[in-house]
Amino acid sequence: MPEGKIVKALSGFYYVQTKIHIFQCRGRGVFRKNKVTPLVGDYVEFDESNPGEGYITKVKSRKNELVRPPIANIDQAIIVVSATKPGFSSLLLDRFLVLIESKQIEPVIFVSKMDLVEKDLYQFIAQYLQDYRKIGYAVHALSIKDLSELKSITGLFENKTSVIAGQSGVGKSSLLNAFNPKLAIETNEISESLGRGKHTTRHVELMEVSGGLVADTPGFSSLEFTDVQLEDLPNCFPEMKALEDACKFRGCMHNKEPKCAVKDAVKAGEIPNYRYDHYLSFYDEINNRKPRY
N or C: which end of the chain has fewer CB within 10 A? Predict the structure, then answer.
């Protein structure tokens, strides 16, 4: 039975790429009955009904999946935040990081529009970049105009399935176009009146970029922590996870517990205050979340 990977889902059709061809497939009714929805990124088996067409018969097990955007088997998430227009937000970046870390997906941080940064703002952003690198994140400061810099990181995509995340207007589509001009993804500058990007991608599709596949997605339409459990939150902050064995209490939540290594590290300046503040804010948000039935 032929096998392949779903690279696009549109209007009830799944486009399955094999080594030789892309097949336009529909899902079997059995999926609806078993509440299985094939996702872009899924490895599947299918029956070829007509040349170039078929029916998906089996969805193979996934290593991970995201709900919004709906995509599976992701190797890395590239989180794009802009240095300016819209302004750099460590709070927003940390929200993205927690969502990605909670799914055990490797995050990579791109800071775009560095060429637009004024001198006084540059030092401010450079400090943040240093902080995130110290935590262990791969951080790349980018400018669309500096093609040599973009070329130096094209290897990041090779043989990987990547998803790009970031708020509207940070330059996700412009970056993808710079990596692969053939894509010609439509972009619009930020609408001055709305203060947000006008370009919206309406479906999920995996596109070839620098020897790998990248999802141009409708963005993370929800940045709520609906799937993040409170006890998993400390694991979504790598610098806190690294200290868990040094806390007096096993399963320490680094909040009100005494003799907490994380709180000591914050006091000593080893963990930035803003990271800990964001952690406490997310803690309260998840803790006060209304239960879903």
Answer: C
Q: What is the CATH number of domain 3-61?
A: 2.40.50.140
Q: Check whether 75 is labelled as a binding-site residue.
A: no
Q: Is 193 annotated as a binding residue?
A: no
Is 247 labeled as ligand-binding?
A: yes
- Interstrand relation of 22-27 and 3-10 (parallel, antiparallel or unpaired): unpaired
- Annotation-wise, does 111 bind a ligand? no
Cis-peptide, bond into residue 86, ω within 30° of zero? yes
Q: Tell whether residue 112 is among the known ligand binding residues.
A: yes
211 in a known ligand binding site = no
**Each residue's pLDDT tens digit in the chain (293 positions)?**
899 999 999 888 999 999 989 999 998 876 777 778 899 999 999 999 889 999 999 999 999 988 777 899 999 999 999 898 888 999 999 999 999 999 999 999 999 888 888 888 888 999 999 999 999 999 998 887 776 677 788 889 999 999 988 887 777 777 777 777 777 655 544 334 334 444 444 678 898 888 899 986 655 656 888 889 999 999 999 999 999 999 999 999 999 999 999 999 999 999 999 999 999 999 999 999 877 65
CATH of 230-287, one of 3.30.2350.10, 2.40.110.10, 1.10.1200.10, 1.10.40.50: 1.10.40.50
- Establish whether 172 is an annotated binding residue: yes
- Do the annotations mark residue 114 as ligand-binding? yes
Segment holding 267, helix H or strand E: helix 261-267
- The reply to whether 90 sits in an annotated binding site is no
Closest of 185, 187, 179, 164 to residue 209, by C-alpha: 179
Which among 111, 117, 119 is positioned nearest to 92, based on CA atoms?
A: 111
Give the CATH fold of the 66-216 domain: Rossmann fold (3.40.50)
Q: How many residues does the chain have?
A: 293
